[in-house]
């Protein structure tokens, strides 16, 4: 073999060695990159699935809800991050399970869980609430372990009240003013009607009666500018959502109020022990 042929063969082998070396370097670099991608992917997957957090209640624990008899009570329970958990309502005084999810587990149809799709609010609704419904209710989420808050329902009986004494005495021609207010009423009334004896008089302007109602303030006033004997009688304040109240009005035309109150001689003398002893002695003498 000539020197020229040896030189050409050497160059060819060098080219092969360079190609092999380059391939090995490239493969090694790709392996390292693949390992980095795998590691990065693993970290990414690990970051995508953090440890599960317990549900968070947005409704404050020990919240007091006030409802009046006959109304609809709404006990709220707002939960963040419920995940696959299920909300249940429990009446604590007898540990009675009321609802699980949207299913009612009590025979009392007044109870119902109210929940809009994709919302975080699970409200317990009690229709036609009664005084016996008062007490503590538990909103429980079926996490591990279960999470709960406790809410107190206070049931009150709203009533109307007319200011002043039960019986009122006015002089002929004076101003008659009756003011009615609602007590223990968390809800605004739809109406407040006044009755004179058995007649509703809210619109009796022609009879000299003017009624002004402030429903948001839960009050109503009946006004007569110049009272006459026709305005005497029983007046009742009847709200839409409360027990009524009554008062009796006497329009005096020179009469003595004390005489009108007693209607004649006081009957307390019948309770005198000495009188009964005297009557017993006289009865004994008559039969002796």
TrEMBL record:
Pfam family of the protein (one): V-set
Top-rank lineage group of the source organism: Eukaryota
Keyword Protease in annotation: no
Key words of the record: Signal
Keyword Signal attributed: yes
Ig-like domain boundaries: 55-150, 173-249
Single Gene Ontology BP annotation: synapse organization
Signal sequence segment: 1-29
GO cellular component, one term: neuron projection membrane
Protein name: Ig-like domain-containing protein
């Amino acid at each position: 073999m000539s020197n020229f042929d040896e030189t050409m063969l050497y160059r060819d082998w060098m080219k092969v060695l360079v190609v092999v070396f380059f391939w090995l370097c490239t493969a090694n670099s790709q392996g390292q990159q693949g390992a980095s991608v795998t590691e990065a992917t693993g970290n990414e997957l690990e970051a995508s699935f953090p440890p599960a957090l317990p549900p968070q209640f947005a409704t404050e624990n020990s919240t007091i809800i006030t409802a009046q008899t006959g109304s609809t009570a709404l006990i709220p329970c707002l939960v963040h991050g419920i995940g696959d958990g299920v909300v249940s309502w429990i009446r604590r005084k007898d540990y009675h399970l009321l609802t699980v999810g949207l299913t009612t587990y009590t025979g009392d149809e007044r109870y119902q869980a109210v929940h809009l799709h994709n919302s975080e609010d699970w409200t317990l609704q009690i229709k036609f609430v009664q005084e016996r419904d008062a007490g503590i209710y538990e909103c429980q989420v079926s996490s591990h372990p279960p999470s709960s808050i406790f809410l107190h329902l206070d049931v009150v009986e709203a009533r109307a009240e007319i200011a002043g004494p039960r019986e009122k005495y006015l002089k002929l021609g004076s101003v008659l003013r009756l003011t009615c207010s609602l007590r223990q009423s968390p809800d605004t009334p739809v109406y407040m009607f006044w009755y004179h004896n058995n007649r509703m008089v809210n619109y009796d302007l022609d009879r000299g009666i003017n009624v002004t109602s402030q429903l948001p303030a839960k009050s109503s006033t009946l006004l007569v500018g110049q009272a006459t004997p026709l305005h005497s009688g029983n007046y009742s304040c009847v709200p839409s959502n409360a027990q009524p109240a009554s008062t009796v009005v006497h329009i005096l035309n020179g009469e003595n109020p004390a005489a009108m109150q007693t209607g004649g001689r006081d009957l307390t003398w019948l309770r005198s022990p000495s009188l009964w002893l005297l009557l017993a002695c006289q009865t004994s003498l008559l039969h002796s």
